[in-house]
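Researcher: Last one for today. Full complex below.
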Amino acid sequence: MNWRGIRAIIRKDLMVVTRSRNTMLAMIVVPLLFTVALPAGMILLSSSQDMLDEFSPDGDMALFFNNLPASINDELSAFPQPNQQIIILLTMYLFAPMFLILPMMTSSILAADSFAGEKDRKTLEALIYTPLTDAEIFIAKLLSSFVPALLVSLLGGLAYGLVVNTVAAPIMGRIFFPNLTWVALIFWVAPAAAALGLGAVVLVSSRVNSAQEANQLSGLIVVPLVLLVIGQLGGVVYLSAGVVFSIGFVFWLLGAALLWYGARTFKRGELLARL
Amino acid sequence: MQNAVISARELTRTFGDKAAVNRLTLDVLRGEIFGFLGHNGAGKTTTVRLLNGVLAFSGGSATVLGLSPAADGPALRRRTGVLTETPSLDERLNARDNLTIYAEVYDVPRDQVNRRVDEILGLFDLADRSKERVGGFSKGMKQRLALARALLHRPEILFLDEPTAGLDPQAARQVRDLITHFSRQEGHTVFMCTHNLVEAQRLCDRVGVMEHGRLLAVGTPVELARQLGSRARVEIEVAAEHVQRADSLLRSLTADVSVEHDTFMIGGVEREFVPRALAALVNAGVMVYRVAPAEPSLEDVYFALHERNETS
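Model: Here's the assembly. Have a good evening.
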């Protein structure tokens, strides 16, 4: 395996993507929104009368409270104040699926730029004439998308933890983040979500002619995360540690299947024929 | 053939029912500039892809530098350089980064990368623009940079696909000079796809002419003319005051006569025509200053080959 060549392609892809203002804007703004701005804003609003009314037995969020499983009720009972319970529900459960958007989005944006973007920029032919094998090019492209996605989710998790613990400190009186669910989310499900986003882009990239098309098509992959948000709000599913492990397992399976198929169909001759 | 660095035998590649390359048999010799001529879609680019092992053969065989493109693609591509029709450069990166990354990919020794990049940037007159984004370069500069990248790892064979297409005359000349330099002074073999016949005539030692995936002929332009049985052309320069007399005399001997100022161009004649015409002119008192046989141009040969192929 030509690791020197693989590292060079990874470096090239990262240099190319960091010089795209639009891509970098998306990669900075969305994580800041999901890990800093939104959680901080919601925590600050948790003590407002409107929020307390929403979560009261007559409020719109009553269904959510009424359907909570025993394990979550036990967790909430450690926090006697209503605004403390709201903070736990928001930061530990409702924001969890949104956090998963980060690795999925990062890996799919980078992969679209790396795989389909080569066609866009008309740089694929030079790459194809290099001494790298098909497998080496494929691995370089995967790593240049997957590793940054992992970094974004780790840094995002860290930022999220700092923000929620700091902003909620006057209300909670102690450090409460992370719990087991979030540890699993950051170290088990986030990499799986990155792999799934990556697999989806690899699958569509060979069939489209631009990074934009690849992004649009692979964007459908976030639909399960949106369903998770809705499912939690409707009281259908809760991201307990067990559920999170299961979701991670399913994501890994799907991601691995898509990547395996992508690797089998990644042939330089086929890519050239589509130029 | 001895000393051949590229040997193809019955090499074939089909896409569906269409044969992009059809039973190509060809040898390219070490150190020569070989021109691969043909219209768009003749199969030139597909041949380059087959010879570099990036496309699989549908039939036949080939060796390049003693290696099989089908089985030894990565090892072979380490020893070849390819300039594609579009420069294929990362325009968001600067010139130096474009070269450095490919030096790593081609496994140029680590301690030589910076020196090699500096040298080639200087040679291609790009040193003072090396930190600028390639997106801001002119077409000629991009082509020079792409050629620099193709030569960075010192390939034994350089494949060029329409190297001067779309360039202004000055940029085209610079690129041609660089190709000549690397072939004549550094001993690289050059395999050049082009439909620029003037350029091919100027640069190439031998040419092959392709049409619809088939190789119609291969050789020097003179050899090809002989194969085709092309007749000679002769230029005769006479005294200005004798042009009219010479004109009527020459037209009485042959039909294909044209005149520019005091020089006659006579085409489609046998060798024996020359002494006969000269004797007639001298006997008629025409002052003859110069008689020069003209080699058939590559363009003559090219169109004659296509014409012959169409009629057959």
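Chain A has one domain: 3-273. The first helix of chain A runs from residue 3 to 18.
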